[in-house]
Amino acid sequence: MKNSVNLPVFNISNFQDYNNCMEFDSNFYIRPFNDHINVNQFIEKPHGHDFYLLLIITKGSGIHSIDYEEYKVEPGAMFIVSPGQVHHWCLDKDTDGYILFFKKEYFLIDFKLDKLIKFPFFKSSSSVPYLKLNEVEETILIDLYEKINEEYQNHLLNYHEMIRLYLNVLFIELSRIYKKKHKYTISYSYELMQLNRFEALVNNHFKDHKTLIFYAERMNISLKQLSYICKKTINKTPSVILLERIILEAKRLIIHSEMSISSIAAELNYSDNSYFIRFFKKVCNKTPEQFRYSFKDRN
Which of 95, 99, 93 is nearest to 78 (CA)? Predict the structure, then answer.
């Protein structure tokens, strides 16, 4: 799908690697967070990426914005950012922790193709990208981060295989924590696969197709089945998932492009500009222009 927003999309090779690891340098990355932000200062502005990002904060404070939702940066904050999401942060200089990136292809070398989406934080665009860890949870995850970092620096025999094993353990521990903190049911079966299929279709067609019957027909299921799948897996209706994707794209265009509001409405295939403005205000409690100016005021 054509990206209408003029935002940088980074890959792992854009970042400076302190380990000079050449074999998988475009597929995996880990380092202390303070080092990372000091040598990669180009990441302060809003951007996307084509890899998964996990960040745990051990020190400092600030704000981390992920798809225009702001989360508090503090010790024990854990962030999981997936490919396609837009994020940036505003941090105190002493903020520290651990950050790691990995490409899907890197992890799946040793695991089945559906392995990643079985974890609740990777399973859909509706997954919450933030967790506040208690001291025990923080200790468990930091210990795994440090084991991964040690493997990455030491280059011992089969160290990439060991990193993937530790990543799997990290994701299992994180799943247990995630399940305790979020109420909706975690499903690993047919419904989850269908949810991901629906969301992929929405991501590709939301501009041109705003009725649910299109998606149900493409999936060869009924509207009732589609509704059941979405409610069971993430407790949302299909219409809400579609609406959220439209609004997310509208926000990206409003904030990160110079397009007029009428041009944005047209880009999203709303022929009636006034209807689009009312629709946006109803969802966001601000008109598109008010949203644009409020975001500029914060930055």
Answer: 99
Q: Which of 138, 163, 181 finishes a domain?
A: 181
- pLDDT at position 1: 37
What's the N-to-C CA distance of the chain in angstroms?
A: 29
Q: Structurally, how many domains does the chain consist of?
A: 2
Q: Which domain holds residue 84?
A: 9-181
Q: Check whether residue 132 and residue 198 sit in a common domain.
A: no
Torsion of CA 19, 22, 26, 27, to 10 degrees: -80
pLDDT in tens, 17-65: 654 444 445 789 999 999 999 888 778 788 988 899 999 999 999 999 9
* Structural domain contains residue 1: no
Same domain, 278 and 221: yes
Q: Where are the beta strands (DSSP E) in the chain?
A: 9-10, 28-32, 48-49, 52-59, 62-66, 69-73, 77-81, 87-91, 96-102, 130-132
Residues 55-85: b if buried by 16+ CB within 10 A, e if exposed = bbbbebebebbbbbeebebebbbbbbbbeeb
Q: From residue 17, give the alpha-carbon distance in Å to each of 109, 128, 201, 222, 290.
A: 22, 29, 36, 49, 41
How are strands ordered across the β-sheet holding 87-91? 69-73, 62-66, 87-91
Tell which of 181, 204, 233 closes a domain.
181
pTM of the model: 0.76
Residue written as tokens 């409690």? Answer: 285
36 and 163 housed in the same domain:
yes
Dist CA 187 CA 196 (whole Å): 12
Tell me, yes or no, whether 162 and 57 share the same domain: yes
